[in-house]
């Protein structure tokens, strides 16, 4: 059974414009799937429909075999990392990472601490737990945003161009870290980018979109060897 299954997904806006047009993709459990294509091809819209931030016009979205079209984002048990990290400036790194756990309530403080420390260790943030976001580098802030995503032990991680605001050197480092983190955790991941290098180095498979239409789904190797 696919972890995430998109069946003939359509997103149509009021004027009849189809930002996503009849897209079907199966994402296997533990798979790292890239959504790639030029600006405006519909990749963010598709990702937002997986998370539940955007209504689906047509088709079925299945997560773990269950249809989620009408489910609110908080009932989908997915974790999204945005491009602008949206950290809370007045909270420490520890509290920023702990935030999703505090929302759930009823999690014992000891478990919160343990899970935050685990996430921080995975992302090499242990020494920075008491600092405020303003006192971190761009890369560290990005890692805090990721910490917040992984602390929840969601069924899947969703990334919307998480590295596009970073400089080239940091982007390279973060690529390596994301790849390592995902392999270590084995969590199903959907990652939106317009960056060819990210698409070719991070993903198990790459879904190529153009003007809302799915062109192909292939491994980086298959794409590379294509004429
Ligand atoms: P990408 O993430 O690939 O850059 P998007 O998913 O953001 O593309 O957008 C896909 C297309 O849908 C674009 O042409 C965009 O202008 C259009 N679009 C996005 N939101 C709306 C909206 N609220 N109303 C009309 N068109 C929209
Ligand atoms: P991103 O930073 O992901 O590229 P955009 O700048 O494409 O986001 O879109 C920002 C917001 O504007 C989104 O809520 C999107 O739905 C909306 N939007 C994008 N394109 C259009 C459009 N053609 N008409 C109306 N709203 C749009």
From TrEMBL:
UniProt keyword Metal-binding present: no
Record-level Gene Ontology MF annotations: ABC-type transporter activity; ATP binding; ATP hydrolysis activity
Keywords: ATP-binding, Cell membrane, Membrane, Nucleotide-binding, Translocase, Transport
GO cellular component: ATP-binding cassette (ABC) transporter complex, substrate-binding subunit-containing
Claim: Phosphoprotein is one of the keywords in the record: no
BP term (GO), one: carbohydrate transport
Every ABC transporter domain range: 4-227
Name recorded for this polypeptide: Carbohydrate ABC transporter ATP-binding protein, CUT1 family
Organism of derivation: Cryptosporangium aurantiacum
Highest classification ranks of the organism: Bacteria, Bacillati, Actinomycetota, Actinomycetes, Cryptosporangiales
